[in-house]
Amino acid sequence: MDIEIWKEFISQNWLVIVIALILLFVVINVLRTMLKWAIVVVIVAALIIYSGVSFEQIRTVVTDVGASTMDTLRTEAAELMQKEAEKAEYTVNPDGTFTITSPNVEVSGKQGEDKVKVSVRGISLGEWSVNDTVQLFMETAQNQ
After folding, report:
1. CA distances (Å), 79 to each of 20, 120, 133, in order?
2. DSSP reduced 3-state for 114
3. How far apart are CA 141 and CA 98, in angstroms?
4. Cα 16 to the chain's mean position, in Å?
5. What is the distance between the alpha carbons of residues 67 and 27, in angstroms, rounded to a whole number?
6. DSSP H stretches of helix in 54-131
7. How far apart are CA 1 and CA 20, in angstroms?
8. Nearest to 77 by CA among 7, 18, 126
9. b (16+ CB within 10 A) / e for 70-109
10. Kind and range of the H or E element at 26?
11. Could you give the CA distance from residue 68 to residue 80 in angstroms, rounded to a whole number?
12. What is the pLDDT of residues 65-77, one digit of tens each?
């Protein structure tokens, strides 16, 4: 979805967009029931349909943004692991699991397994396979 397409759409349909925004404002401020939200959804859906944007395109954009964000967070996590390996603390729990914490990264898993859970600044990035970066992070924390 190109920004130029949106600029063109807005310049050609500015009056329809202004009317829709006024309607939304009136509906949100005047109505106090569930009907209000139904009308808001109808107006927004009508604008989307009128613009020619399909729900498949919206789903594609949302999926692409989500994947891009996760890739960026994974790259940042790997860089933080390399930078903060010396500051990491390795803790072994009685149940055979371990937790490695540094100022921004937390890695937890079970001894001898190939998967670990990774969190960056409290945001879970899911389970990762133990790759070279994670292995180095774990070994550096363990050897301190």
Report:
1. 46, 11, 9
2. coil
3. 11
4. 32
5. 35
6. 55-84
7. 22
8. 126
9. eeebeeebbebbeebbeebebeeeeeeebbbbbebbbbeb
10. helix 14-30
11. 18
12. 778 877 888 888 8
pLDDT of residue 11: 81
How far is residue 100's CA from residue 114's CA, in Å, rounded to a whole number?
A: 15
C-alpha closest to that of 14 among 39, 57, 50: 50
What's the CA gap between 111 and 23, in Å, rounded?
59
Q: What is the pTM of this model?
A: 0.56
Q: How far is the CA of 143 from the CAs of 117, 121, 139, in angstroms?
A: 20, 24, 6
78: which 2 tokens?
A: 């790997």
Per the document, the length of the chain is 144
Per the CB < 8 A criterion, the answer to whether 18 and 47 are in contact is no
Amino acid identity, residue 33? T
Tens digit of pLDDT at every position of the chain (144 positions): 567 777 777 788 788 788 888 877 777 776 666 666 777 777 777 777 766 666 677 678 778 877 887 788 888 888 888 888 888 898 998 888 999 999 989 999 988 888 999 988 888 888 888 888 888 888 888 887
Q: Tokens 């860089």, residue?
A: 79
